[in-house]
User: Which sequence fits this backbone?
């Protein structure tokens, strides 16, 4: 599966547009919880969970599952997340590739 085939309806509705905008355009997520997931920051996920019932772990796992289809350069550490945002996400990569051709 690649990113264009991802079904975002498997994650909470409030995070769908945020995740899409981040991966596609490199927009900084307004959610500290989502940013913690992208950075592989488990403590941040637990501290900023939108739910106290299960500490947001099932939803975080679903986001991570979707990220398996996203470019590896866009998640996994704070450094990768910052580079992805500075580069403009997938759209920024496409523009950069077009300039090189």
Assistant:
């Amino acid at each position: 599966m690649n990113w264009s085939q991802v079904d975002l309806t498997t994650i909470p509705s409030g995070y769908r547009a945020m995740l899409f905008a981040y991966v596609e355009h490199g927009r900084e997520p307004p959610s500290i919880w989502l940013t913690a997931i992208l950075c592989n920051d488990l403590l941040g996920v637990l501290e900023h969970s939108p739910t106290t019932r299960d500490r947001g772990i099932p939803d975080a796992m679903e986001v991570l599952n979707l990220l398996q289809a996203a470019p590896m350069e866009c998640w996994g550490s704070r450094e990768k997340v910052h580079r992805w945002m500075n580069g403009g996400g997938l759209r920024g990569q496409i523009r950069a590739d077009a300039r090189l051709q």
User: Anything to note?
Assistant: The chain has six helices and no strands.
